[in-house]
Amino acid sequence: MRLAVFTILGALILGPTASAQMTGTGPVNMMWGELLAPAAGRGPGAMGSFWKTDLWLKGTVGSRVTLEFHTIDATTDAATATATVTMNSAVTFLPDVLKNNLGLDQAFGNIVIRGTSPVSATIRAYTPGGGGDYGTAFMAMPTFMAMRGTGGMMDNDDRYQLQVVGLQPQPRARVNLMVTNSGSLPISGTVEVLDADGLPPLGAPVSLPFSIRAYSSHQFGDVLGGRTSRFGDGSQMQIRVRVANNSTGMVMALASVVDNATNDTYTVMGSMMSSTFGNGPGMMP
Known about the structure:
Elements: H1 18-21, E1 32-44, E2 50-58, E3 64-71, E4 81-86, E5 91-94, H2 97-100, E6 107-129, E7 132-139, E8 141-142, E9 147-148, E10 161-164, E11 173-181, E12 187-194, E13 207-212, E14 217-220, E15 238-243, E16 250-259, E17 265-269, E18 271-272
Antiparallel strand pairs: 1-2, 1-6, 1-8, 2-5, 2-6, 3-4, 3-6, 6-7, 9-16, 10-15, 10-18, 11-14, 11-16, 12-13, 12-15, 16-17
């Protein structure tokens, strides 16, 4: 369960608003006061692997950055561990951050990063292998980029759904989906597997509920397994993530596509794909 996470891996102060940036006015600013780094961890994995996480921070010299670790499938909103880092240089490198800074020998989850000044971060998850290390790295996401519920009815409204495309089906590959709560309120919702036309694929219908505590995550393993597309080889199947009606919570999603022969992996971010682009919040690619 937790260990499967690690098959995934996997500027200027913000001027315009998030919705303005989504209309093509310029690149998204990745420096922000609160970031979320998903899929961080330390501990044993499949096939003899042992995963560790490194973290790079970029910010203002002299500012302080708080790291807050929330485990996957947490049963409480409280952080498992916290640490504070002073930026003694514009770029600070924290190797094996869970062990050295957060005091955790084994844990898998998310790191919430908050700075007294805007900060950006890059996370690397890796394991020894082949005479060196292998893994992946990606940027921590400003939490404002999450899809946010309205607190009302959101059924069939594309502005409040995340879509994940760019997937490969069984038997060629397995797809693991990570749904992350990027806010301080618990969230609930549903994951659906759809065919290219937005209708269910062949096989058992897939409608997977989730309920996630603050800043925690839940992983759905091999979500395309047992489903067959009505179009081609199945590479056009897609995943839709909805938040429940009346929710005001915030959600992000990412999928890892793992080659069954080589274990080569790539990661796809869930994105808001609304025909009324720019009219509401949502994650960008």
